[in-house]
TrEMBL record:
CDD domains: AAA (cd00009), PAS (cd00130). Residues 12-53, 129-181 form the PAS domain. Coiled coil: none annotated. Keywords: ATP-binding, DNA-binding, Nucleotide-binding, Transcription, Transcription regulation. Residues 267-497 form the Sigma-54 factor interaction domain. SUPFAM superfamilies: Homeodomain-like, P-loop containing nucleoside triphosphate hydrolases, PYP-like sensor domain (PAS domain). PROSITE patterns: PAS (PS50112), SIGMA54_INTERACT_1 (PS00675), SIGMA54_INTERACT_2 (PS00676), SIGMA54_INTERACT_3 (PS00688), SIGMA54_INTERACT_4 (PS50045). This is Sigma 54-interacting transcriptional regulator.
Length: 578
């Protein structure tokens, strides 16, 4: 923009670099493509170093990426960064009708207030600053008015003048007492004391306002009145929302704390093998080496992966988990490598960042690595060797730096012999191997694990279960635990859905565990396999009916049978009259 009546050769970059507002522009992928010099004042790092990086790495709360979802501007977002409160406006960038980027303007509100005061005092000296101030006034508050020492209106914005169905120029130059009755904020001209957040009637509108003196050389030269909320109900709504968010934050803080504590309790215990494994894990975490976690399903391999991440030098970076067995083969490559826009039919507009890039600076956890297809294994090996990835549909490589942790319950050595797993990848993964024992080999930890899950589900179910009966605990100790810790957690959660007191009892456990208890108190059933199975089936039906107080619908549900299926089995065992 040029000053009127002057010839000027100043470039746009020079103008933007000399503004007090920090300006950042991103592409549709959220990568920073422009930042002016004022960004340094916020981040305290050279601006050139952030070009090409994700906006969320430096402004995680900006909400700038929402612009790509809505396609419309968002004004007046407040956010905190480096102990500074910023005011952010976010605007989409359209070229020939296509959304090609977005720009955010950040403003330090504290500095803005000082800026406003100085502009009011010096507004006669420069019309250029006056125009800048008008833009700020019309976007920063729900209403703002400035008077001089004599109470004459020297400046106001559209938001304030709209309370009187007028324009700002209609109010400027008038005594404030002619604008509206009882202009309470003018008291500051006499007292010099600011007042914030008072309720005031402004031409029939109940508002929340603030009043502050304007000082020059220690003397009061004017006063500034600000409408903070143009309707007191907005404050009530905001207060309610803040209370709700505070409660939610407290809940999540407590939940995270409880979950972290629970996770450590799940890993620690009396078992010597487990204790030694934990100590080894803590040492390995510091090294940054690739780790292969081995063990049966449900033994807690992900907990060890999280422990490796939390105790490493990358703990402040991302922890990205990929379940190689849960993602279809035809989607795994695009999930891992990401893709550019138009890379294939159905590709999302703007493309997508892959898991390798998302894990940059942190830990990549590849669960169920033994289920990865051979073709993908070769591509994974190349990433591990070269530490760079190339998105689908792109010819540009991206450097990646992550710590790799893999997990499997498969026999990788056997798979290598059967040509189902690459031997070279195996040796890349098998730098440090941690083998997690199954629950049946750490039965001495059953009591600790039960207490941990009771604590977790008391919080989740808002109950006050104090423990488990000796009878139920003994049955759990006799179980072989094919599902390991995950099975135990599911059993305790199921019990919380059944318990009607403060103690988990045998009747709250699944039928297959109750059958174990029934056979502990009766002679061994002899006969053919068919006879034994019939006896076990009959016991399961009797227990289910007993636990449901004869309610056959509930009994069928607990056994995973339809109502007709239950009746068929009841007739078979002559129990239909129970």
């Amino acid at each position: 923009m040029l000053l009127e009546g002057q010839n000027c050769s100043i470039t746009l970059d020079e103008i933007l670099d000399n503004t007090n507002n920090a300006i950042i522009a991103v592409d549709p992928q959220g990568m920073i493509i422009y930042a002016n010099r004022a960004v340094f004042n916020i981040l305290k790092i050279p601006v050139s170093t952030i070009i090409g990086q994700p906006i969320t790495s430096h402004f995680p709360e900006t909400g700038l990426m929402r612009v790509f979802e809505t396609g419309i501007a968002e004004l007046g977002q407040r956010l905190s960064l480096n102990e500074t409160i910023l005011l952010s406006n976010r605007t989409p960038i359209y070229v020939h009708g296509e959304l090609v980027g977005a720009v955010a303007v950040f403003q330090d509100i504290t500095i803005l207030q000082n800026f406003l005061d100085s502009l009011v005092i010096e507004h006669e000296k420069t019309k250029q600053l006056q125009r800048t101030l008008e833009v700020v006034l019309n976007t920063a508050y729900d209403g703002l008015i400035v008077v001089n020492k004599q109470g004459i209106v020297t400046m106001t914005n559209q938001a304030f003048s709209s309370f009187f169905d007028q324009n700002p120029e209609d109010l400027v130059g008038k005594p404030i007492t002619e604008v509206y009755d009882n202009p309470k904020f003018t008291e500051v001209l006499e007292t010099g004391e600011p007042v914030h957040g008072y309720i005031h009637d402004l031409n029939g509108h109940e508002i929340i306002a603030s009043r502050v003196p304007i000082l020059q050389d220690g003397k009061i030269v004017g006063a500034l009145g600000k409408v903070v909320f143009k309707d007191v109900n907005e404050l009530y709504a905001l207060t309610k929302k803040i209370d709700s968010l505070r409660s939610e934050l407290d809940y999540y803080k407590k939940t995270v704390s409880e979950n972290n504590s629970s996770a450590l309790e799940l890993l620690h215990g009396r078992n010597r093998i487990m204790g030694s494994l934990i100590q080894t894990t803590l040492r390995v975490a510091k090294s940054g080496s690739t780790v292969l976690l081995r063990g049966e399903s449900g033994t807690g391999k992900e907990l060890f992966a999280l422990l490796l991440h939390a105790q490493s030098s990358r703990s402040e970076g991302p922890f990205i988990k990929v379940n190689c067995a849960a993602i279809p083969e035809n989607l795994l490559e695009s999930e891992m490598f990401g893709y550019d826009e138009g890379a294939f039919t159905g590709a999302r507009k703007g493309g997508k960042i892959g898991k390798f890039e998302l894990a940059n600076g942190g830990t990549l956890f590849l669960d169920e690595i033994g289920d990865m297809e051979m073709s993908m294994q070769a591509k994974l090996l190349r990433v591990i060797q070269e530490r760079e990835v190339e998105r689908l549909g792109s010819n540009k490589s991206h450097k990646v730096d992550f710590r790799l942790v893999a997990a499997t319950n498969r026999d990788l050595e056997g798979m290598i012999r059967d040509k189902q797993f690459r031997e070279d990848l195996y040796y890349r993964l098998n730098v440090v191997t941690l083998t997690i024992p199954p629950l049946r080999e750490r039965i001495d930890d059953i009591g600790i694990l039960i207490r941990t899950f009771i604590k977790k589900f008391n919080l989740q179910f808002a109950q006050s279960v104090t423990g488990i009966s000796d009878e139920a605990k003994e049955i759990l100790k006799k179980h072989r635990w094919p599902g390991n810790i995950r099975e135990l957690e599911n059993i305790i959660e199921r019990a919380f859905n059944m318990v009607d007191g403060t103690e988990i009892e045998l009747k709250h456990l699944p039928s297959y565990l109750q059958i174990i208890a029934s056979h502990d108190t009766r002679p061994y059933v002899e006969g053919s396999l068919e006879t034994i199975l019939n006896e076990v089936e009959k016991d399961a039906l009797v227990i289910a009916l007993k636990n449901s107080n004869g309610n056959k619908v509930q009994a069928a549900k607990s056994l995973g049978l339809s109502r007709a299926g239950l009746y068929k089995k009841l007739i078979k065992h002559q129990l239909h009259k129970m």
